[in-house]
Amino acid sequence: MTIREVAHEITVSAPADVVYRLLAEVENWPRIFPPTIHVDHVERGAGEERIRIWATANGEAKNWTSHRTLDPAARRITFRQEVSAPPVAAMGGTWIIEALSATRSRVRLLHDYRAVDDDPDGLRWIDEAVDRNSRSELAALKENVELACSTQDVTFSFEDSVLVQGTAKDVYDFVNEAHLWSERLPHVASVRLEEDTPGLQTLEMDTRAKDGSTHTTKSYRVTFRPDKIAYKQVTLPALMTLHTGIWTFTETPDGVRAASQHTVTLNTANIERVLGPDATVAGARSYVHEALSTNSLATLGHAKAYAEARH
């Protein structure tokens, strides 16, 4: 049985406690790690938890469940995959955050793993995936933690919602059946939806802007019938470096509350090129917020009409 052990590290210009907190709170992961699509808690206890992670590895979307032990005093987080996705037979490791000064930290990421049947091709695939993901995770952690610690207000979240006199299932179905959006939504010019693994979708679409131009986006979506669809956009418009979102469908005494929540990080390097020499961060926030809200509310409005007609 061949067990491989590897280590990666990076230095971050942020306090060690801040870095530890961002790693400990898994809801931050889609924002700070490019491969991570969505993370959910399965169980939580004192210093221990089970989490389910959806992420890409070597361009393929996969999901697995991990058990984590958290030690805030030592700033250590150990993790072990409970159910690994082939070709991985077993995978575990440790995050270690060390304070270099009040404002600088060293982050070490250790992995140990083995391949199914000790297959050399499988091991090579895992070597490449772990190395690529570890480097990108640490680089993204550095960039996004340092961004979070800086003053520029470039990451923000917002939500749009409608009340539907129908069933949550019908509203969910409308959003889930994205392969029909080019027929159902005026702002969607064309769409390609793949779902090789049930509940894990790849969605590519061409969206029309107000000026008639179209832009292509690609997202990975994780579906939780009938009350939630989480997604992460991986092909982004020029003004964003991050876009994650969650559609939620909640039964209330007054009807179904259908909501679309977005989290965005602006690409400040492109603001002037896209919006002109006088554009500000605040102006870019408003522009992106309006563009995303317009599309969300259009989709929610059509989902409402669809569900109410069926009701």
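Above is the first protein from milestone M3; the second protein from the same milestone is given next.
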Amino acid sequence: MKRDASRGAGPVAKEDSSGGKAPSGSQTLFRGLDLLDVVADSGTIGLPALAARLGLTRSTTHRLATALVERRLLSQAPREGYSLGSKLLELGYLAGQQMDLPRVARPHLERLWEELEDTVHLGVMDGDRAHYLDKLTGRRRINISSRVGDRQPIRSTGLGKALVLDETEERWRELYRKEGPPTPEGPSEEQWIEWMRGYAQRGVAFDLEENEDRIRCVAAPVRGPGGQIVAAISVSGAAQYMDDDRMAALTDDVRQCANAISVELGWNEKRTVAAKR
């Protein structure tokens, strides 16, 4: 008969293998969560290595892991060890279905807006265009024509460029050409590709008055659980307030805000970097 998880985990709360005070229920919960983090970082891991990583005895680790296996949060393979369980796939799917990107992003965008006083945007890819989902109008009495619901070009907007930073150069060229010949003031295809290479390396993209006269912006991608770009944010302002020095200074603020939203969506930078190696 399948035991209730709380009963299965119960003995852990009563045991302290070091001989000290028995762990509380919350301590047991945190140990179980730490265990899941270790398995997520390690892939399949055996009991001895798992116990060593957690700093617990094998018996305590085994009891924690057994409770998690019973609830399908972990899977166990003989002679191989523990890996993440199928229940996490279900929970991840449900979390994704229930997560509202503008709602999750809004508090972070508001903090950025309060700090900078410039116009802040959130957008996603929609076909070959950037679709604006949210806008917080700046307080500098500068009119920026963007509106929620707008679909803007990739080539000329900072937010659009940020959405495609992970794409291949072939895809960049395709997106550039879709917009037709550049304006006399706009970058050539080769110049734009060179810019995109630099933006991809830095993890931010600029709009240097390409989309709207005398308006500049700094943008950064928002990533999902697998590290893929799912959205982007931007800070836009009049060129008189957005000289080269200020745009360089804003890159960290915009990137940190985008990363904070990404973390809420399930992104883990360490795991993403490891997966790319």
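Note on the second protein: The first helix runs from residue 5 to 14.
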